Amino acid sequence: MRLKKRLAVIEVLVDINGSRKELKKIVIKIGGSVLGTDECIAKQAKWIDEISREVDTLHVVVSAKKGVTDTLVKESISMPDAQKAMHQIQGEIESAKRLCKELKSIGADSKLIIQGTKEYPLVGKGDWLCGKLDICKSKERIHKLDHKLCVISGFGAETETGDIILLGRNATDLVAAAIANLDNADAIIYLKDTHGILSNIKDKYSTIPRISAEVLKRNIKENKWEVLHPETLDFLHQNIIGIVQKHTHPIGKQSTIIHGGDAKMTGKTIRMERIINRDTGKSVIIPLDHGVTIGPCKGLLEMGKTVDKVAQGGANAVLGHVGLPLHGHRGYGKDVGLILHLSSSTTLAPDPNTKVLTGSVEQAVKFGADAVSVHINVGAKDEAKMLRDLGCISQKCMEWGMPLLAMMYPRGPNIKDACDVAVVKHAVRIAAELGADIIKTNYTGSPETFKEVVDGAMGVPVVIAGGAKGGDMETLKMVEGAIKAGASGVAMGRNAFQHENPAKLVSAVCEIVHEGKSAEEAIKVMTQ
Length: 528
Fold this sequence. Notes:
Layout: H1 2-7, E1 25-30, H2 38-52, E2 57-62, H3 68-75, H4 81-88, H5 90-105, E3 110-113, E4 124-125, E5 132-133, H6 135-142, E6 149-153, E7 156-158, E8 164-166, H7 171-182, E9 187-191, H8 213-221, H9 230-239, E10 242-246, H10 266-272, E11 283-287, H11 290-294, H12 303-313, E12 317-320, H13 323-328, E13 337-341, E14 343-344, E15 356-357, H14 361-366, E16 371-378, H15 383-400, E17 404-410, H16 421-433, E18 438-441, H17 447-455, E19 462-465, H18 472-484, E20 489-491, H19 494-497, H20 502-515, H21 519-522
Parallel strand pairs: 1-2, 1-9, 2-6, 3-6, 9-10, 11-12, 11-20, 12-13, 13-16, 16-17, 17-18, 18-19, 19-20
Antiparallel strand pairs: 4-5, 7-8, 14-15
Helix pairs in contact: 2-5, 7-9, 12-20, 16-17, 18-20
């Protein structure tokens, strides 16, 4: 009961689904607005100490004091990129140190965890300014947090090599949400200066103003209230973590977050989970769109049987034109995600590199697709039209909450080597800039060069194309190299569906992509 009384200091509490949890593991995010003075820090430390005595685990994630980050950003303008991120998170680090010091002064056994110490629980990848979380690696680190009370600095994450990357605007909210989700917390508490509340904690407090879930949802939908960033909400909805949020400013004041209408981006996350492995964050996709391009061919004469074989092997998704759901839906067997391809051209055309739209996002929704894909040949004669189509489809995908896979191939009269790292990473960056959620492209031949491609994608997952049909070991070696470089999987067509045993080949690929096996280890699956 003492913990429930402590939670009563939160000003607003809202029920979302009416479920009830015993609070044993809590994450608290403290905004800079409530850490402005020594008196404020002492007050928060006392409150945190009292809660920590009532729970099994308490992680406290802190922001920089108000205005500090803006100053640090200005100071870092002339610094090399490698130093900018570390400089800009100093405000969060200083807040964490001050709070941890205050906790220790009142006898609380708190542990300080900051970036740059190899203990930081979140691992990121991508560009230093707008990196993305590596879910699998972060989960491994979070599970190593064995201290009861941890004070953690927010805003950034560490890469596997120890570099610091930032996670975007209001990233401390995201850090807290990610830690809560990946550590299976029972509740997360936001102490900050915004209005917007989500919670599944049902306890009734007579002293707390009540707002029904229906009212909350309606106001969010109508863009009247500001709530948490969509990426933060993506983490929170996955485990339906209880959230309580303290606000200190009236409704309508600009502060941390996006308008609720953008919360539909959660639809992308839900659909994305159907085409990836949730535990690894990676995907094995089998494109079956060749019938339009080259006509009937081996492996695609009976679509349902082919889908069944690759699904048995562990494929996360199949990709194809409208004919795939029309003629390849099985109604039986292992489930597999559906990516509807919206671009077409044929080898019979004067210029096969010119792709035109032959489908729509709305059509994909009607067919129950989990994602859509478009094909862009960068460097082709009609590149401009294809880029325009990519931009239009990207906008539609945002409106419908539909994930977008962009197939980005360097092809055209001025492309001398379609696997050259310079042109491949340029093609990939275009897709990232125009709103793609997954990018498929050529493998550049080595982990070292393909890492440049992945690093240039700003954290957007990159999967490699299967390439020309080759031997099993050659294919698996290519996949292994891509995964070592940081790729998020593979989109493999003919090497999979034209294989003498598609299920075995796909299973071997999954061993590399999802289990981290080497090509030599994975090929043993082929003989079992």
